[in-house]
Design goal:
By secondary structure, this protein is an alpha+beta fold. The protein is built from 14 helices and 35 strands. The chain has an eight-stranded mixed beta sheet with strand order 28-29-31-30-32-33-34-35, sandwiched between helices. A four-stranded antiparallel beta sheet has the order 1-2-3-4, with no helix packed on it. The longest helix has 19 residues.
Length: 707
Amino acid sequence: SCCRRDLCAEPADAMLLHLPLIVGCAWTHRTLPIRTHAVSRSTTAVADGASNAATRAAVRMAATTSDAIIPKSVLFGNPEYASPIISPDGVLLAYLRPDEGVLNVWCRTVGASDDRVITKDRYRGIRQAFWAEDSKTLLYMQDDGGDENFHLWGIDATTPSSAARDLTPFPGAKAQNVVTNKRFPDQLLVGINKRDPTQFDMYRCTLATGELTLDTENPGGVLGWGTEDESFEVREAIVMNPADSSTTVRVRDSAGDEWRDLVTFPYGEEGNMVEFARDGKSVLALSTLGRETQALVRLDATTGAELETIAYDPKSNTAGILLDDDTKEVRAVSFNYARTERRFFDKELEADFRALEAAAPGGAEVSIASRTRDEQTWIVAFRRDDGPTEYAVYDKEAGGTVSPLFVSQPALLEYRLAKMEDVRITARDGLELVAYLTRADSDAPTPLVLLVHGGPWARDGWGFNAMAQWMANRGYAVLQVNYRGSSGYGKSFLHKGDKQWGVGDMQHDLSDAVAWAVKEGIAREDRVCIFGGSYGGYATLAGMTFTPELYACGVDIVGPSNIKTLLDSIPPYWGPLRNDMLLKIGDVDNDADFNQKISPLFHVDKIRAPLLIGQGANDPRVKQAEADQIAFSMAAKRIPVEYVLYPDEGHGFARPANRIDFNGRTEEFLAKHLGGRAEAFEPPEGATATFPLETRSFEYEPAQVVY
């Protein structure tokens, strides 16, 4: 089912979860200045560092991380191992690992040491892979230079000479909504927007030949599709009404029957379908109807009437669901207010998790990375806040033995890392906010980085965070706040963020978090940086313009500066979501004054502190123009700004060389303006940083032409 959320799918690879997130254009080529020398800190900053050496040495006595500088290459380079997935038949183990410095898919026979690289990506790297149900075809997604037009690729992992095949070979189209089924191991279903760029039809793919046939055409407005397992027919659809932003679950009794509306969630409510029951008489769904948070419920498959509330938490949405693959009975449900909590409906499964928790490193959270079809062999992830993810094999057939598999980034084990605390902050109107604090010093206040998550309809969570560890090691406390409008805390909390961007309560929550950190003796009031990507980048620009007295500097990555131009340039397949975004943000289409009020571009004159901007030229969500317009406006007014553009990146920086490059520049920037430590910086080989403010020409060829 397209909407099923499984405990197996909880993210374990924190090393891969950098900035997720906003589209290139047809450009005219111009020669670009490429900086090849190291960025120099100002003489003032260097002198300041020397004069305060004794003080910093004393402060490090209570430091939460190693005295040694943890290299950026260790924190932000490729993981040594990631995303292990065992084949459904238990014969092969696939995982991600660098080959010639680029992440690729590797494979080994379970119980053997015949590790071999399967794919041959030589530039961008592969970040998501999974098995087809035939247990020999590995599937993976890849886009072009960050344009997010992902294609679905397949390769035979059992044949050494096999070449990868593009299963969705349509230029400019995007593949998503991939569904496999153990009862039909030679097939898969995939959504592609090749017929109409604004919507996705479902195609059936024969794995042996790669043949695609149209299975279900999108009648308009369908955002996602799901299947009934026994028949492997597309029988559920999630539809958004652009007129009122209500969401409707539609179902049909077979592929030949008419669709009918099962349940509608008006704007302000949250819900989704999870799975058809085995008997076909009911469905499992998530719903806030009649309650504050998303509960797991059972609905009548004909009328949509609620028959049963299966699991509910008054403070947290249902976060994960594990079903029996055959009976469709609920085995476990998870919630996450601040940390993951599970409720078990299956005693055997509960015993399995208790055994794994006992075997895990102290304080680690356990999740299932993958399992065999017979569920006798599990690949499990032990995720903690102060160390890399560790993977193990749980062998139920051998009596529940837990055997180490590998560590995602073993080089991190050489360093002492900071703990992440989940804390509560009370906003000015009394609303409780969950936040995550990573201290640089356990005793004394330090400079603070307010790290704002993107979305904004997303959330931060507990666990290893490379950005937080990096900053703590350099001398900065890090505070990550789930401000109102964040997801996971129910409908009221989410919609308290409506029309509260920039000058409203969403930004006030961030300001209140800074005040809390100062009051609690965590942060130095005069040394606070606001830092974020996507919406977090917008919040950075808003903080710099609307509350400039709070921040000594800011770092904006792929953040929008003008909300009207942002929405005017969203990808075509976001069309059905536009009205929903207007209801959440405010009507910038018809109210120019409101757009000007919340868009930082119109308030550049208020900026008092230096700003660093990072942008991907191929970003399909937040176009390059969003960075260009505010950077050039600031430069024209002689307000301190640095602007780095990567022509082969999109919404965030996927290539390690570019991540390390931008973070190196960020580290120098923070050291200069906050006074922390910095690793010596030289632009890494392969980085593609360009500097639009240093050239008279600002148009670039798309990455697929240049590279």
